Amino acid sequence: MAARFDGLSTYVAPEIVERHMRDGQLRVVIIESQVLFAKALAGIFAEDAEFTVVSDLRAPDEAGLSAAKPHVVVIDLDGQPTDVAATLGACVTGAPDARICVLSMHLSSEMMQRCLNNGAEAYIVKDISPGELLRAIKTVAGGQSYVDPRVAGGLLRRRSLNAGKPDIMELSAREAEVLKLIAEGLANKQISARLHLSEKTVKNHVSRIFSKLNISARTQAAVHAIRAGIV
User: Fold this and answer.
1) CA 127 to each of CA 63, 106, 112, 132, 226: distance values in angstroms, whole numbers, following the listed order
2) Which of 71, 103, 117, 170 is most solvent-facing, going by the fewest CB within 10 Å?
3) Are 20 and 142 in contact (CB under 8 A)?
């Protein structure tokens, strides 16, 4: 199925999601400091039969996470008293095989990068719709990463690609331009107009970028670029 995230598309292969499922469902732990919001999140997951919420914690608890054996940990960072590294470190220690998805109210590229650097696979801003949230979680459960494209695009707009910097992913200058626009949320047709290229040429650039980064989703392109330090 093709899912849309604020102008970026991603494909979640059913067979990939299936490999992360046990007893036909994705096991989710919710970490939310406020009971009302925790119940609201649980209600969203209850609407999709592919999920089962196996634990509902107020804060990261290594023993509780270990016992729950989740596939995905969804944590609202806004109500957590400790710093990002300590909070996510406890999640990773308690559930080393789980995918960590951060919820936050902040459209902050700095916060996003701290989360990714400390074990998170997703940075999701909380104005997302319930349906988009579920699709984002499935994307992450399927082995990819997800960041809000508004946050990733903001980071890329503030930084320029340094031609003298070692390009560890061997992107050409044109591919780097296309990568930047992908992260800003532009579709191929919009990139074509911005760079004065044919849509077919843009599609070829995107295919080469995906091949060089070994990815299959536009959201993952932005994540990979940020983590690799090429922007």
Assistant:
1) 31, 10, 15, 10, 23
2) 170
3) yes
